[in-house]
Prior knowledge:
Blueprint: H1 3-18, E1 26-29, E2 35-39, E3 42-50, H2 63-82, E4 89-94, H3 102-118, E5 126-130, E6 143-149, E7 158-162, H4 172-183, H5 186-190, E8 195-202, H6 215-219, E9 221-223, E10 228-233, E11 238-241, E12 243-245
Amino acid sequence: MSDNEQRESAHFKFFRQLVDDFPEGEVEHVDEPDFLIHSPSGIVGVEHTQLFKPNKSDKPPTQAFESQAEEIVALAQEHAELRATPPVNAALFFNLRNTLPKARRLELARAIARVIHDNVPQQNESIQLEYRPGGPGEQPPEVDLIILSRDEQRKRHYWQTSEAGLVLRDCRHVIQNTIDEKSTKLPKYLAKCAKCWLLMVSDGLRPSGKIFPDDKSAVHCYESRFERTYFLDCTNNRLHLLKSEN
Length: 246
């Protein structure tokens, strides 16, 4: 099995666990569509596709940014430990554009530590804290997103930072463009199945794949000819059944 097929299979197994009314029946891993479910009521196809951000916004971070972000995160983690914050895994996604003075870095680190301390999830759960202008809480605007999770096996904090400007949250255009592209092949898919679902996946393993849909993207009504249109956010363990109309 190729790396791509292994990745598709892993995504499909995760997807299957999250769909309450997933059809019973034997599953074939084929092509166009990628999966066929032989259910008693007919064959259901599932076309899998992985989402990536448009190339024009996918720029590598500078060493200056990396150094600054790592310093802020290290300071924030130190402050959190001094406050006896329970051990958490924390992924922080910055939108820094300029070098900050030392005093501002310290102020930002304290703010991050405070936000994480006040939002520690339950054991074996995860949450994401998204910055919203004028929204509740004290999350600093320099941090687009904070993802927190707790693992009962972890006894120490593990905090990390991601690249600046590489988190895509309003992804409505990416989703719609992907639906449009896959819709051109729908007649070919339906030659093998009675109905077909579209599964779009963001796993966040590469900078170009860091797509975390905001509320606008999750509730938007898309134009789709697929019977069901899904978005699987592997990073946050979330499956969105998207609203759509033909």
